Amino acid sequence: DGLPILHWFDDRIAAELRLWDAIDQQYLAPFLYFGIHDGLDLRDIPWRRGRGYETEALTNRYTSSDAWARLVVKQLLKHADVDSMRCLGFCVSIEHAQFMERHFNHHGIRSVAIWGNSARVEREAALRDLAAGEVRVVFSVDLFNEGVDVPAVDTVLMLRPTESPTLFLQQLGRGLRK
User: Phi and psi dihedrals of 87, rounded to 5?
Assistant: First the structure.
């Protein structure tokens, strides 16, 4: 919710655990990270300090053709076992999540898209189907960043830019649960 919590702890950090230390101590699963250059030029997308890229323009860039989505599928097939993976894909917007859902389903990778305003029953069904292997990818918008544990997830697709190291680690962390 963006509200500070430090005052609840006398303005002191009681403990700190870095990602690599958590992996070494076996609290989190080790991982492989593939940073794939997608060739998209975002320099002309409006940027707002403190808010990041303008969502509509960014959505249009990602969904204006199938070429980018085809690259995502190609790289996923190269680096993951799509027949057994349980994947969360973090998207820019609802339109982007729905676009990716359609594209992946078209390529035989069973997927669903959910977002903050999706009915609770839809969100629960998506995670249940993911855990059961009935769905391979759940594309989401503004969900699963923090405060949720989805231990079935073994693959994460970062399909949106972020300037926030905290958001990046929260999303990465969805795939590191043991």
Answer: -120, 140
Global pTM?
A: 0.82
**How many Cβ atoms from other residues are within 10 Å of residue 103's Cβ?**
19
pLDDT tens digit at each of 178 positions of the chain: 667 888 888 888 777 777 777 777 777 777 777 788 888 888 888 888 777 788 999 999 999 889 999 999 999 999 999 999 999 999 999 999 999 999 999 999 999 999 988 888 998 899 999 999 999 999 998 776 555 667 788 888 989 887 766 666 676 666 567 7
